[in-house]
Amino acid sequence: MAGLFDTFGIAKRGLFAQQKAIDVTSHNVANANTEGYSRQRVTLQTTTPYCTPSFNSAAGPGQFGTGVEVTSVDRVRDTFLDYQTRVETGVQGRYSGRDKFLSQIENILNEPSDTGISSLIGKFFDDWQQLSKQAETSNSRSVVVQQSLALTNELNHTSSELTKLKENTQMNIKDDVFDINSTLSQINNLNKEIVQVKVAGQSPNDLLDKRDVLLDQLSAKFGITIDKKNYDGIDVTTSNEPADIASPKGGTAPIDTDTGKPVNIMQTSDPDNAVQFAYISDISNTDNSNDTNTVKLTYYIKGDMSSESNKRTIRYTYNNKDPKFNAKIDAKLKGIGECRVLYTDSQGNALTYDPITNKKEDNGGWDITTGTLYLKRGKNPGDLDNLKLFQPPSGELKGYMSVQQDIDVYQDQLDKLAKAFAFAVNAVETQSATYVPNDSETDDKTNGVYNFFVNSSQKGGEDKITAANITVNSEIVKDPMLVIAGWSADTSVCGESDGSRALAIAQLRDKLMGIQNIDSAAMTREKFLTNATTGKAMFVADSNLGNGLKTVVNNTDGMTLDNYFKDTVDRLGIQEQEAKRMVANQHTLLAGITQAKDSVSGVSLDEEIANLVQFQHSYQANAKIISVVDQLLDVVVNGLVK
After folding, report:
1. What sign results for the dihedral spanned by CA atoms 257, 259, 260, 262?
2. DSSP 187-251
3. Which of 405, 404, 391 is nearest to 242 (CA)?
4. CB of 41 closer than 8 Å to CB of 59
5. What is the C-alpha to C-alpha distance for residues 505 and 486, in angstroms, rounded to an integer?
6. What pTM value is reported for the model?
7. C-beta of residue 263 within 8 angstroms of C-beta of residue 254
8. Hey, how many other C-beta atoms are within 10 angstroms of the C-beta on 485?
9. 5-27 pLDDT per residue, tens
10. Which of 594, 590, 239, 159 is nearest to 415 (CA)?
11. Which of 114, 237, 375, 481 could disulfide-link 262, Cβ–Cβ 3.0 to 4.6 Å?
């Protein structure tokens, strides 16, 4: 039969339980402004009542309650909102990364402005127009030369700045790889602690909050997938956008050959054997002068370049006789250069594709598969075909990797613009649709006339001319009178005041040319001045200019030089607007998700104060019961003595 001491025990348990509830409430209030903190609550449950039915249990009414106990301290958390947050944070990270660099490309192109390329193109043609009217003056020629130099210098500068910007994106990738590996290490340590605390039967709520904050930060870098394990442990995997460099497809995590399961970048079981990320710091392709080339990739484990002990090298030698295979290698190296992130094992060895058809089962047998590519660990690969790059479908890394492709596009379009200028102006100036380099060290003329635009790395040629190297022929810069303005290079024939050739160049402003069809690798002046569709010559004599002077005629499939550049600027503007719009949309979406999370997990001070008052009153009531029991015991013990 229950007595006063049982009543005392009930009150004591009630007192302790309310004390724990007050402690949790105090913890909530203290962390009301802590990032990532989840509101906690105690779960109270009645203790086992007295008595348990049996043959020798006392007869009479029952069962009698024995009080209350705290069974758990739980985090208030909605895992679906966590999932939404990480997915949308990855999308925001992607477009934030793109916006960061697309806006810088806009600043580099500096359009529209009075000093940008478009304005300089207009001034270039204006000065040639003026020269056609004042062909006899040296001043007009000097102005043409200086204005042309201003245009080529701006093309050089813009190309150089785009190259530097691409290098900056790669440095951002390097920093991200280092941060990612550091974050994964922190998550791994927290995961171990969480499992240990959980195994001991306690609730690692604050550790779980810290881990969730790090997972949210990680999701901003790239998309992650979380697989829950026993005792609140987790495995983290990441999807990979393309199956290889050249054939993008899918968005699934790579498969580990040994386990047949997705490769974990953080795992509860055998945590020290999870894969890591490395940063490729240097890519070189050296001609060995024996019909072979050697590709050398230098990467650093975990992106940590602070120690040479982290440095690893992959070498691949190939036969360079086949132009198609060389182009394939160049394309792969370009893809590697834009990505620069490798999967590695815990020893720093690069993971490679293993095109196996047999996979070992858990029971020791073999399962026949059909062409699935698995990742294998071991020594670094001897070729590039199976090298496994990490190319995520979302996050900052995706943004940085994709914007490099955009930089390459704009660089390529500038190169096409430079080639078009050089081919068209040089053709009219030299009156030749072809360019044949002269072997002479002292002369590189066509029809006795110097090329106007040249490759700065060559004496007077236009081979491999790009926006980075285009300039005005140094001979013409030294002597502007070498600019030919008349229909003939001999002024005694055409007269000093004849400006037919200068007029033909000025009229190139409105000529439609196949600029978009320029193949940066193999284009020549002759190809450029031929219609790619009909094969018709686009450089013919114009009767309006007189004396059989040849000029570029309209290509109905083409566009003007200025419009081509403006289309480039417009394309950039559209891409930047899209990035800004997506960043704004994701900000709004994440704000809504954050608000929903706060309504579930956030600390409401008003609610906590209300709970505190409730627990306080309950604590006081239990204390009163103890006081009453004390008085009753005094009556029973001391009263009987009287």
Report:
1. negative
2. HHHHHHHHHHHHHTT---HHHHHHHHHHHHHHHHHS--EEEE-GGG-EEEE--EEESSSS-EEEE
3. 391
4. no
5. 11
6. 0.84
7. yes
8. 30
9. 888 888 899 999 999 999 999 99
10. 159
11. 237
Number of CB atoms found within 10 A of residue 111's CB: 18
Q: Are 516 and 559 in contact (CB under 8 A)?
A: yes
For residues 455 and 474, the answer to whether their CB atoms sit within 8 Å is no
pLDDT in tens, 173-216: 999 999 999 999 999 999 999 999 999 989 999 999 999 999 99
Residue 486's CB is within 10 A of a number of other CB atoms, namely: 23
Beta-strand pair 470-472/539-541: unpaired
Residues 6+ apart with CB under 8 A from 183: 214, 217, 218, 221
End-to-end Cα, the chain, rounded Å? 26
For residue 112, say if its preceding peptide bond is cis, omega within 30 degrees of 0: yes
Name the 3-class secondary structure at 286.
Answer: strand
**What number of other Cβ atoms are within 10 A of residue 341's Cβ?**
25
In the chain, how long is the greatest CA-to-CA distance?
148
Structure tokens at 608: 């906590």
Identify the burial level of 45 via C-beta atoms within 10 angstroms of its C-beta, where 0-12 means exposed, 13-18 middle and 19 or more buried: exposed
Written as six digits, the tokens of 466 are 């790009």
